[in-house]
Amino acid sequence: MNTFQYIRFFSEIGIHDVPLVGGKNASLGEMYHKLSGEGIRVPYGFAITADAYRYVLDAAGAWDALHAALDDLDPNDVRDLARRGQRAREIVYGAGLPNDLSAEILSAYRQLQEQYGEDLSLAVRSSATAEDLPTASLAGQQDTYLNISGDESLLDACRRDFASLFTDRAIHYRVDQGFDHFKVALSIGVMKMVRSDRAASGVMFSLDTESGFRDVVFITGAYGLGENVVQGAVDPDEFYVHKPTFIAGHRSVLRRSLGDKALKMVFVAGDTQRTTRNVPTPKSDREHFCIADADVLELADAAIKIEKHYGHPMDMEWAKDGLDGQVYLVQARPETVASQRRASEINRYVLDGKAEVVSTGRSVGEKIASGQARVIADVAHLPEFQVGEVLVADTTTPDWEPVMKNAAAIVTNRGGRTCHAAIIARELGIPAVVGAGDATSAIPSGSTVTVSCAEGDSGKVYRGEVPFHVEKTEVGDIPRPATGIMINLGNPEIAFKTSFLPNDGIGLARMEFIISEYIKAHPLALLHPDRVKDAVARKSIDQLLRGYANGESFFVQRLSEGIGTIAAAFWPKPVVVRMSDFKSNEYASLIGGVDFEPEESNPMLGFRGASRYAHPAYAEGFHLECLAMKRVREEMGLRNVIVMLPFVRRIKEADDVLAKMAEFGLQRGDEGLQVYAMCEIPNNVILIDQFAKRFDGFSIGSNDLTQLTLGVDRDSEIVAFDYDERDDGVKEMIRLAVEGCRRNGIHSGLCGQAPSDYPEMAEYLVELGIDTMSLNPDTVIATTQRVLEIEARLGRKPAG
Questions:
Q1: Is 596 contained in some domain?
Q2: Which residues of 114-126 are buried (b: 16+ CB within 10 A; e: fewer)?
Q3: How does pLDDT run across 4-13, given as a tens digit for each residue?
Q4: More exposed terminus of the chain, fewer Cβ within 10 Å: N or C?
Q5: Can you tell me the distance from the alpha carbon of 411 to that of 364, in angstroms, rounded to the nearest whole number?
Q6: Does 407 lie in the same domain as 388?
Q7: Cα–Cα distance for residue pair 375/443, rounded to 1 Å
Q8: CB hemisphere CA count around 645 (13 angstroms)
């Protein structure tokens, strides 16, 4: 039985004890005795209660002095805030610890030593009674002390922790959140130190922090202690895991991004004044992910269980111990930004102009803002910052928050999408570009810039003021039309965000975008780098393949993760993925591509689409594409993916390619695999009854079908006036195709530009009774509403 007055061990506390032990300790206790049995590791420890904090100040008679220091505070006066904060900290630290409280702390310390050994090192962490609430984080406002050992060091760390309730950042945050300084108390968590200085640590969320998409776990990590990831001192590795397929038993990382991880925080042996320092990460370590897939999947499992236990999205910190090799959860709190967004309203920021890009990094916030740049070197220069400026800095810490709330946008040299600057930017609702590398040198202080985080994962800083507009869309009450409305999408970076549009799945996922943006090299050049003649291209391929076993593993992993991200975003709706449809000149433009491609006078009508797949000149490349699709469906478990073949000219060609797919592990019908074909050649329409025996559906490509029906090169400007999808001949081809699909009982869809560009074409397709039409994201809402009106006029009821 606990005989302590001011100490509670983690096994004795739970989430309802926030008033006594603060949010952090209450959550650690909750996880320790509610989730340890499910395989979640929490380092054991104890909480020094909030009552102990009040006892310290009562015993020292310090309350009046604290009131004198804080009652007339002007939180917007940075210098006054600094003076008063320092005075408040001096008062609390100077109050000391009463003897009976010190004795209790040391007695609890002895119990931990009995469990872990006398050489146990400790983490001493603050836990405020107003932190980690569903609507206010307060995270990072107080101090943490690591690698503490010995009685005097522990007691001094506790005094410093109590005093950190009055850091400048904590004072300012409480004012902003409406908390009374004298009603908030501080508890302290004293726990076994996880030796992540010898391994890795990081932050994870049970949703995507940018879009609010809830079907993924998002994990960031870097080598060493977690402070670097939290504060943005490093560009961390990133990982996503898809929750529904993970729960169904598929163990696979959905997507990953290698961070720079230039620094790692380690302990300093024998240094009594400073317990940690940053050291350069060895280059060989930087070129590899900081944790293995097994660790990522263990973390994802923990995140899913923690979210289920708490009943809402969670923000968690983790650490891997380099001594025992185990992964520990060291914090869990409610996620307070992305999960609070209104799902019924979609705001889309769109640039209306172009300008020179002066710096790029990772985007945070999906917004755009312009303003005068202000480069701030350190905390001492914060008073120079003016309201509405763009804050440009190497990195930020909680001490910067009083001015961050006045910024139009934030740009930092260092940090990932879970760093301090990113978290605060999301909370404030402003765009931020983090990990830009050269921001403080590339962006002149005083110059006007536009910060854009609306173009995917890559955030851009443009020179000057670039015009933009915001498209606001209410999507909550739009019924689903009888005609399926699908989306054309090639960019995995915007898949989560795009999934919030009302839709019936993806009608066209273009493989070419993923190959050109994430793989960059010709597949045959990856398989046969020795046949690449250009030395620069060979060097580029060597750089791409660092950390991978060979070119095959690189191509298959990168392509499958790109496709998998799109498939996961729209799970369990159908996602139709078109196999590569580069023309020979486009393939030649990939790294190393010129050594594997023919020179053609008219590539548009040449060696493209299905004609490549079974051909000896590209069969090895098609094999890689099939391996990637097989991995998406089988290893990742994303069986909502439908394979689509482009530009299938002849029946024999269809048979040859289907046979080659089966040879490569993609047998139509196995595990529910459906195979569609593009209907974009007149022969597809003429012989549709024969093609229909070989495919599960047709997606009409109106762009190429128009080109080949009218005999117009769609890339030629000089005859552009003759290119028109609305031509009666093209419309007749579409009619015959839709009716042929219906006659043969297979799916009919259209994935070309026509319904996005021309309302009358959308109307024509509805009247034909086409099963689906696939649209560009920016036209989905308007076209859906138009289709509903047309269907109402025709007497058709909405799907739901």
A1: yes
A2: eebeeeebbbbbb
A3: 999 999 999 9
A4: N
A5: 10
A6: yes
A7: 8
A8: 34
Domain holding 49: CATH number?
3.30.1490.20
Q: Outline where 664-727 has alpha helix (H).
A: 682-686, 688-691, 702-710
Q: Within this chain, do residues 524 and 665 fall inside the same structural domain, yes or no?
A: yes
532 and 617, same domain (yes or no)? yes
Dihedral-angle region of residue 210 (phi above 0 means left; psi in -120 to 50 means alpha; beta otherwise): alpha
Two tokens at 373? 């740049």
User: What's residue 130's pLDDT?
Assistant: 64
Beta strands of 464-567 (E only): which ranges? 468-474, 484-489, 506-510
Residue type, 65: A
pLDDT digits (tens, 9 = 90+) for 390-423: 999 998 887 787 788 899 999 999 988 878 888 8
Q: Please identify which residue in the block is written with the tokens 């007055």.
A: 5
Domain C-terminal end among 142, 176, 193: 193
Q: In terms of residue numbers, what domain contains 351?
A: 345-473
Sequence-ordered strand ranges (E) for 38-92: 45-48
747 is catalytic: no
Query: By C-alpha distance, which of 679, 746, 676, 739 is closest to 706?
Result: 679
Residues 189, 201 within the same domain: no
Region 294-300: mean pLDDT is 98
Active site residue 751: yes
Domain termination site, one of 453, 473, 493: 473
DSSP at 116: H
Q: How confident is the model at residue 273 (pLDDT cuts 50, 70, 90)?
A: very low
Contact 493, 513 (CB under 8 A): no
In this prediction, residue 298 carries a pLDDT of 98
694 burial level (CB within 10 Å; 0-12, 13-18, 19+):
middle
Which DSSP state fits 588?
H
State whether residue 124 is helix, strand or coil.
Answer: strand
511 and 623 inside one domain: yes
pLDDT over 60 at 157, yes or no: yes
What's the token pair of residue 4?
Answer: 């302590």
Instruction: Give burial (CB, 10 Å; 0-12/13-18/19+) of 666.
Output: buried
CB atoms within 10 A of CB 429: 10
CATH of the domain at 590: 3.20.20.60
Are 84 and 109 contained in the same domain? yes
Q: Which helix (H) or strand (E) holds 7?
A: strand 7-9
Please indicate, yes or no, if residue 754 is contained in any of the structural domains. Answer: no
Same domain? 379 vs 450: yes
Helix (H, G, I), strand (E, B) or coil at 358: strand
Give dist(CA 455, CA 740) in Å, integer.
40
For residue 137, the model assigns a pLDDT of: 43
> Do 41 and 92 lie in a common domain?
yes
As a whole number of angstroms, the distance between CA 150 and CA 158 comes to 12
Tell me whether residue 533 is in a domain: yes
- d(CA 201, CA 229) in angstroms, rounded, equals 8
Round to whole Å and give the CA distance between 485 and 37.
Answer: 45
HEC profile of 731-786: HHHHHHHHHHHHHHCCEEEECCCHHHHCHHHHHHHHHHCCCEEEECHHHHHHHHHH
Active-site option among 242, 420, 522, 747: 420
Cα 283 from Cα 126, distance rounded (Å)? 35
**Is 777 part of a structural domain of the chain?**
no
